[in-house]
Write a structure and sequence with these properties.
This is SnoaL-like domain-containing protein. With 141 residues, this protein is of the alpha+beta class. Helices cover 29% and strands 49% of the residues. It starts with a helix and ends with a strand.
């Protein structure tokens, strides 16, 4: 592995990590900055839309605002580099805590795979495409 490949892999891992944090922080400008122009996102695996970053943000805002909290956890990352393009696959577990009608809290868990296409831009690596692939849903409520 040469220095450029190491650098590319570190930067792509940083993008994957920032994605999780920006969702949980609801930092929509920083979230949008992770994506290349004309990026597409496919969130249909859990009932979301297929669309642009703006489409996904419009979907996510009310979902995340309805929660007490969430924690997006991504791991087991595989990256394949091809010049200024890359693909990545990572596992994610997303616990999300809500409140029941009686006021008590409950946490549900979504497990998924992210399948990504990334591109090197003038601003560094960015998502060109992000697809959610459903693994599981555990809802004890």
């Amino acid at each position: 592995m040469d220095l450029r490949e190491v650098s590319d892999r570190l930067e792509i891992n940083e993008i994957l990590t920032r994605y999780c944090h920006m969702l949980d922080l609801k930092d929509w400008p920083a979230f949008r900055a992770l994506f290349a122009e004309n990026a597409t996102l496919d969130f249909r695996a859990f009932g979301g839309p297929l669309g642009s970053v703006d489409d996904i943000v419009a979907f996510l805002i009310p979902v995340l605002d309805s929660l007490i909290g969430s924690e997006h956890i991504a791991t087991t990352v595989m990256i394949d580099l091809d010049g200024d393009s890359a693909t990545a696959r990572s596992a994610a577990i997303v616990p999300m805590t809500s409140r029941k009608d009686d006021g008590s809290e409950y946490t549900l868990f979504n497990g998924l795979w992210y399948e990504d296409r990334l591109t090197r831009t003038a601003h560094g690596w960015r998502f060109a495409e992000r697809v959610q692939v459903r693994a599981f849903n555990f809802n004890p409520a």
